[in-house]
Write a structure and sequence with these properties.
- The chain has 424 residues and is of the alpha/beta class.
- Helix content is 53%, strand content 10%.
- The strands form 2 sheets. Strands 2-1-3-4 form a 4-stranded parallel β-sheet, sandwiched between helices.
- β5, α15 and β6 form a beta-alpha-beta unit.
- The protein is globular.
- The mean pLDDT is 97.
- The chain binds Double cubane cluster (BJ8).
- The site of Double cubane cluster has 20 residues, from α8, α10 and α18.
């Protein structure tokens, strides 16, 4: 690793010894899950390089931004509007922990029977293992599920934090409440950066993020083709990288990939021809939680869509309108678009059920896997209801629950294999 990045890590107070151990395991896992796939699109090279240098070049960029006084905001939820810091030259960086490594550090402070995403996110921060956490000027939490919001109270002892309040119901009151939170967040970003958010800079930020989401929309559109032109794990990796890469560079690379995939579709080239097509719906799968898609695809299926915040919920329904005359109109448009995300913390959340059923048809699927991270109550309770709705529609469904450890891979494989036999 180049000396200059080590200097940056040192300056960010990273625990260098343990950080080295954390990064050591990555190349082998990546080789096994991603690089060993046959016939991958050439344009995946960019995304491979991003992961190979996961704590390198992008950290340097963020470090420079912070030095210039721009807000670098660590986030844990797709509800935090990235357009707002972008308008003043800052950035949102998704911090959701997807690794097992820092969980023992978190368990010194938090209960063991808690969602791994919460423990991993917290562990990365307290153990000083994540340069993205360390480089963030402030971490922006949001009061979504109970576990996260109580964890933020403890996290705020270790890092400057700003919390967005969330409504629980998407009625008129909920919408109004959420809009006020978006306005407050804009005021906070102005104060932090010392810069004014104007109609012009916010409109430009909206257009840039819309372009990124359009590119992802197109990528998922192409996955509807049969055979699918890209594997589920590759497409999902791109959705994970969307959370922290530079917005314009990322968009450009996804557009390039889409061009290549269009050619593949025209030439009838795809991955896993005649394989069962699976929709995975459920809790987020933050980087490097690649286990589930890897298991499903190693059992001979192809994942064609993820109804997840590291998937379709990141971009669908989120083309923010630029109609309006002033900043408040644009903030209203942002608030409205973000409220289209069907998170299980909302009650009721019927739109999510409809969305999953529609996706099953649109992506020409053979079955649905409802995936839940252990101890996530909002999704596990909601999945009981969704399972019933899918069965009523005669849609084959499998409910799976897991965490970040490797211990249950054999058992998961067995269950997925049995499910695939029943759908093919
Ligand atoms: S919009 S899904 S990113 S809150 S942390 S709810 S897995 S127990 S992450 Fe989320 Fe925003 Fe909703 Fe999406 Fe469950 Fe774990 Fe809570 Fe989680």
């Amino acid at each position: 690793m180049a000396e200059d990045i080590r200097e940056i890590w040192k300056d960010l107070n990273i625990d260098l010894e343990r950080h080295d151990q954390l990064l050591e395991a990555l190349p082998q896992v990546y080789e096994e899950i991603f690089l060993s796939q046959e016939n991958r699109p050439k344009a995946m090279e960019y995304f491979d390089a991003v992961v190979a240098d996961i704590h390198g070049a992008r950290i340097k960029e963020l470090y420079e931004l912070r030095k210039q006084g721009k807000p670098v905001l660590g986030t844990f939820c797709v509800y935090v509007p990235e357009e707002i810091p972008l308008a003043v030259g800052g950035v949102c960086v998704g911090l959701c922990g997807g690794a097992e490594f820092p969980i023992p550090d978190a368990e010194k402070h938090l209960p063991r029977d808690l969602c791994p995403l919460i423990k991993s996110s917290f562990g990365f921060l307290v153990a000083r293992l994540c340069p993205y956490c360390q480089v963030s000027t402030v971490i922006v939490g949001e009061n979504t599920c109970d576990g996260k919001k109580k964890m933020y109270e403890i996290m705020s002892k270790h890092k400057d934090m700003y919390i967005m309040e969330m409504p629980q119901v998407k009625d008129e009151d909920g919408k109004e409440y959420w809009y006020r939170q978006v306005v407050k967040f804009k005021n906070f970003v102005e104060e932090l950066s010392g810069e004014k958010i104007t109609y012009e800079n916010l409109k430009e930020a909206i257009e840039r993020v819309n372009k990124k989401r359009k590119a992802l929309e197109k990528l998922y559109e192409l996955r509807k083709e049969d055979p699918a032109p890209i594997s589920g794990r590759d497409a999902n990796l791109i959705a994970q990288i969307a959370f922290y890469d530079d917005v314009d560079r990322f968009t450009n690379q996804v557009e390039k990939l889409n061009e290549e995939l269009e050619e593949r579709v025209n030439d009838g080239i795809g991955v896993a021809e005649n394989a069962p097509r699976i929709l995975v719906a459920g809790t987020p799968m933050p980087i490097p939680h690649w286990k589930l898609l890897y298991v499903v695809e190693s059992c001979g299926a192809v994942v064609v869509c993820e109804e997840s915040c590291t998937g379709s919920r990141y971009f669908e329904g989120k083309q923010v309108s630029t109609d309006g005359d002033d900043v408040n109109d644009l903030l209203k448009n942002i608030a409205d678009a973000y409220l289209n995300t069907n998170c299980a913390i909302f009650t009721p959340n019927e739109e999510r059920i409809e969305d999953i059923i529609n996706k099953y048809d649109e992506y020409n699927c053979d079955g649905v896997i409802l995936y839940n991270l252990k101890f996530c109550q909002p999704y596990s309770v909601e999945h009981a209801k969704i399972e019933e709705a899918l069965k009523e529609e005669d849609i084959p469904v499998l409910k799976l629950e897991s965490d970040y450890s490797d211990e249950d891979i054999g058992q998961l494989k067995l269950r997925v294999e049995t499910f695939l036999e029943s759908v093919s």
